[in-house]
Design a protein that fits this description.
This protein is α/β, with parallel strands linked by helices. The protein has helices at about 20-30, 100-115, 160, 225-235, 285-305, 310-340, 345-355, 360-365, and strands spanning about 10-15, 35-40, 55, 70-80, 85-100, 120, 125-130, 130-135, 140-150, 170-180, 185-190, 200-205, 210-215, 245-255, 260-265, 265-270. Strands 1, 2, 6, 7, 8, 9, 15 and 16 form an 8-stranded mixed β-sheet that branches. Strands 3-5-4-11-12-13-10-14 form an 8-stranded mixed β-sheet.
Length: about 375
């Protein structure tokens, strides 16, 4: 391994060039910090492991070019289904964008570079050091010296693990991209008793659609079969005219209450911080917002030469979106505990635990 004294030196190293990492790198570089953004992939944004739906509110926090927006959605329709028929539906206004996620990630990384960050792809984080971060690139191992490390390396974050945090509670998801001959501007979510702890979705992307299913990890062996059943149901409902699959993806989604995100000189952002919503799984907006907060405060800590200032990151993200995540985690605990309960009807359970129903918010009002 290279002698650390001969290695590169940065104020901040960001591990992971997804929305959280690139937003952090951009914010820090804009404020004059010397930033290195690394990613183990050979191409940013590939492969896509995302349902690609995001609230239009995201434009208040980062510019999105029209190239990244495949189409808009204007509402979300929640379907309560069972094996006796299509079941009940509930509609709510929910303006959103269906993204080209790979291009979105690439544009965010480009914005970080334009702000002054250095980007290094095909660069693998190997471990933390008292002087910085051990990495491997071009088959060479070396230390990158840094004062602050930002872990933006996803739900199975190595940075989080190396900092002593336990594995994160997750849901597992599988998604197909299918040909869609019936364009629509609504996002559909479906709840069925067999989809334990989660839900299925149909998110339109013009001539294609993302169709997926998320469930508790204990049901992983059933995931592929359940998704195939759901696809058949969509054909029966005439949401799809046939089954033409053009892509498959899958992965894990954080679903626990947010964890401690400031660990000495380390900050955790995005999925590595548990910042996806524990009920919906949505994480892009919080990744961008949380990343920007982390990058800004990390740069301020460098300028002040005071790493204690990093604690302000924990305070600010909690003030910004923490309440919704902690409340969602409480609802998830209730959801999983009562999924197979004989004391509560399935419809009542979903109404109390899904954001599309007014009942979801009643416990917050009581508090």
């Amino acid at each position: 391994m290279a002698d650390p004294s001969d290695s590169e030196a940065y104020d901040i190293v960001v591990v992971g060039a997804g929305p959280a990492g690139s937003s952090a790198a951009r914010a820090a570089a804009r404020r004059g910090a010397k930033v290195l953004l690394i990613d183990r992939r050979e191409r940013i944004g590939v492969p896509v492991q995302c349902a690609e739906l995001v609230s239009q509110w995201i434009t208040h926090h980062t510019p999105i070019s029209s190239n990244c927006i495949v189409q808009t959605t204007d509402r979300m329709v929640t379907h309560l289904i069972d094996d006796t028929g299509p079941g009940k539906t509930h509609e709510m206004k929910s303006p959103g964008y269906m993204l080209n996620r790979s291009l979105f990630d690439q544009e965010l990384a480009s914005a970080a570079v334009s702000a002054g960050a250095k980007l290094s792809i095909e660069t693998k984080a190997l471990g933390l050091s008292s002087k910085g971060l051990w990495i491997e690139r071009e088959s060479k191992k070396e230390i990158i010296r840094s004062k602050i490390t930002i872990g933006a390396d996803g739900v199975h974050s190595l940075i989080s693990r190396w900092a002593g945090r336990p594995p994160m509670k997750t849901m597992v998801a599988l998604q197909y991209e299918v040909v869609n001959s019936q364009p629509q501007h609504q996002a559909d979510v479906f709840f069925h008793p067999d989809h334990e702890g989660g839900y299925a979705w149909f998110f339109p992307k013009g001539k294609t659609a993302n169709v997926g299913l998320g469930i508790v990890p204990s049901k992983t062996p059933l995931l592929s079969h359940l998704l195939d059943q759901f696809l058949d149901r969509l054909v029966e409902m005439k949401k799809l005219s046939g089954l033409e699959i053009i892509g498959k993806t899958g992965g894990s989604i954080p679903c626990e209450k947010p964890r401690q995100t400031v660990l000495d000189h380390i900050l955790l952002v995005g999925d590595a911080a548990g910042h996806a919503h524990p009920i919906t799984g949505a994480g892009i907006l919080n990744a961008v917002v949380g990343g920007e907060i982390a990058g800004r405060i990390a740069a301020e800590a460098i300028m002040k030469d005071d790493l204690k200032h990093l604690q302000d990151y924990e305070t600010e993200w909690q003030e910004t979106f923490g309440n919704s995540l902690f409340y969602g985690a409480m609802k998830r605990e209730f959801l999983e505990k009562n999924w197979n309960s004989s004391e509560m009807g399935f419809e009542d359970l979903i109404r109390k635990t899904w954001v599309g129903f007014k009942e979801y918010y009643e416990d917050r009002k009581k508090g």
